[in-house]
Amino acid sequence: MQQLALSLSATQAEIAEELLWALGACSVSLEDAGDEPLLEPLPGETPLWQDVVLYAHFEAEYDLNTIVTELCAHLPIETNAVAIKTIEDQDWVRACMADFKPLAFGKRLWIVPSWHQAPQAAAINITLDPGLAFGTGTHPTTGLCLGWLDAHVQNTDSVLDYGCGSGILAIAALKLGAKHAVGIDIDPQALLATRDNAERNHIPETDLQVGLPDALPADARFDLVIANILAKPLELLAPLLAAHSITGGKIILAGLLERQVEALIECYQPYFSMRLAAIREGWALLEGSRKP
Length: 292
Ligand SMILES: C[S@@+](CC[C@H](N)C(=O)[O-])C[C@H]1O[C@@H](n2cnc3c(N)ncnc32)[C@H](O)[C@@H]1O
Fold this sequence. Notes:
It catalyses: L-lysyl-[protein] + 3 S-adenosyl-L-methionine = N(6),N(6),N(6)-trimethyl-L-lysyl-[protein] + 3 S-adenosyl-L-homocysteine + 3 H(+). Its EC number is 2.1.1.-. Keywords: Cytoplasm, Methyltransferase, Ribonucleoprotein, Ribosomal protein, S-adenosyl-L-methionine, Transferase. Its main location: cytoplasm. The protein has helices at about 10-20, 65-75, 90-100, 140-150, 170-175, 190-200, 230-245, 260-270; strands at about 1-10, 25-30, 50-60, 80-85, 105, 110, 125, 160, 180-185, 210, 220-230, 245-255, 270-280, 285-290. The chain is an alpha/beta fold. It has two domains: about 1-90, 2-Layer Sandwich (Alpha-Beta Plaits); about 100-290, 3-Layer(aba) Sandwich (Rossmann fold), CATH 3.40.50. Helix 4 (about 140-150) packs parallel to helix 5 (about 170-175). The longest helix has 13 residues, at about 10-20. It is elongated and about 70 Å long. S-adenosylmethionine binds near residues 161 and 184.
């Protein structure tokens, strides 16, 4: 297998991608050439970084020098922006699987990929593989939420997982002892993933209901509301999440950075008594109790 790496602007990358597919590439991928995080694009949005490194892979029989010449005929690319190398063949699926190992959260909870044996058979083990929706437990924000759920959920009646992604938090809450959960997401792919993961973990449909935000009845109230989104949506969602929380109910917020803590506490303080519960790798976890 051969790899072509190109340093390009976002506009050049879009043109180069099309050309490379037409010239026989078997894969094309793009990476950020700088440090420009694109956090959570909305469903259907595919924003690009300003400066991009494009990797294209070609089978051994292709002459990459000819392909670069073709490309340069259409795009003003500097020769030092192009690198060609040969890549050793390897089992990519196996290499990717090796990155995901069972992870423990708190005292009772493990997230275990399906190709691994559960390290502690007596623990609360959730089978979960990486997929198209966010939430495998490897990200610090999910980890913070799972740790909190492990420490606090026992006989919680009802849980609202707002921005459920893979459904990992709702599923964990149910396995830890919650009786009923609702998972809400704006991304239909996340709803499919949540349903799929719930089924794999033998959670009946009646215990975990899943839907788009519009599907949540206005009068639904929960003992625990948990939302791992980003600071901006969390800010906008404050009145809505408050409306779905019972008096004395708990709220857990994640997905905000340490520097965003103060502003977010201010947003939720009219409805909840808020406090900073934990920080991990620059990400914060907020905890609150619904005021009467
Ligand atoms: C960071 S992921 C969290 C997934 C999972 N709950 C976890 O903790 O790993 C955030 C999820 O929130 C969803 N989301 C973003 N904005 C939202 C909004 N305004 N309302 C509902 N869901 C939203 C995204 O589609 C995404 O699936």
